[in-house]
Amino acid sequence: MTSVLIRRGRDTRDVQARRKDHVEILQESSHLQAKERGLSRHQTSQHLDLGRPASRTVIFRWWKISLRSEYRSTKPGEVKESHEDFLENSHLQVQIALIFGARILDHVFNLCEGKFDFLERLSDNLLLSIISYLDLEDIARLSQTSCRFAKLCMADKLWEQIVQSACDNITPEMRALAADMGWRQMFFTNKLQLQRRLRKRRERQESQRDSQL
Known about the structure:
- The chain is mainly alpha-helical and 213 residues long.
- The chain is built from 12 helices and 3 strands.
- The chain has a 3-stranded antiparallel sheet with strand order 1-2-3.
- The longest helix is centred in the first third of the chain and has 26 residues, at 12-37.
- It starts with 11 loop residues before the first helix and ends with a helix.
- The relative contact order is 0.07.
């Protein structure tokens, strides 16, 4: 099996290029291994536990799930490696690339090298609260960084907080209108248009009451 090991202290761009080649080679090698051994993902269930950054361990567990009697007494297997040892363990890297894919393997590499993305670990509610303090231009730029931030930056809950911080008082009529048109659209609608929409909404409600009477 051919593999390319990543060493520390090299140029960052060189490391990234070698990692990409490494992941591709691992995937190719793992598919060859699976073909030779007749492996099937449906025969064994696997679990990858990265733990907390402070634990600095990678735990790979697997167990058989089968109705056959010969597998009933089979015990789960486990491999536990420190971050440093994982970077040198090409066999375990092959297994992760085969089962979980190149993206997960690259994520594990980043964790083992101390490259933590703490923003990804924050809850959506906390991120929405932080984003609400940004300028509009910064929110627009942030929405282009990832799919998750694109959804958060378009979330109605975010723009509700932004409207509340921009307005001294939000009346029940305004909340009802926001439920119809959305808080984001309400924020970008000028004051005169909002007044027209509110007036039309009142007229519609009054006509409905008159028709019921």
